[in-house]
Amino acid sequence: MKIAILAPANNVHTKKWLDYYNKLGYETLNISFESHRDGDDRSKWQNVKTHYLPLKFSNKLAYFLTVGDLKKVLNEFKPDLLHSHYVSSYGVVGAMANFHPYIISVWGMDIYDFPKEGKINAAMVKYALKKADVICSTSHVMKDETAKYTNKPIEVTPFGVDMEKFKPSVNQSHEDKIRFGIVKTMAEKYGIRYLLEGYAKFRGMVRPEQFEATHLDIVGPGPKLEEYKQLAKELGIDHQTTFHGRVPHEQVPAFINSFDVFFVPSTLDSESFGVAAVEAQACEVPVVVANVGGLPEVVKDGETGYIVPTKNSSVLAEKMKLFIENPEIGKEMGAKGRRHVVSLYEWEDNAKLMADIYEKTLGRKVSV
Question: Which of 26, 158, 267, 362 has the highest CB neighbour number within 10 Å of its CB?
Answer without folding.
Answer: 158
